[in-house]
Amino acid sequence: QVQLVESGGGLVQAGGSLRLSCAASRSILIFNVMAWYRQAPGKQRELVARITNDGTTNYADSVKGRFTVSRDNAKNTVYLQMNSLKPEDTAGYYCTAGIGAIAAPVFQYWGQGTQVTVSS
Question: Tens digit of pLDDT for each residue in 82-95?
């Protein structure tokens, strides 16, 4: 069992930056993949970025070059640095921890989410 707590969301103007944090209640090394998802009102939840235990990262096409996912294993924390934010990035952002196959992990644990709102 693990608790994930996101923080760092807020209101920002287009072009601005935010850094989200996801603090885990135990070591994140037991999870093959840590990821960030987002969900906007009326839309499906989508994968934003993921990072494996060996540091391999993947991003949604819509955020490539603007967002960076990283992890600090010593602090049991995963980060999402978001730059050049756009109004379409407005959503609830959720941290999740995955087990099983790296290619298709089972995201068993989820945080409560943090809201990001980007004004135009």
Answer: 999 999 999 999 99
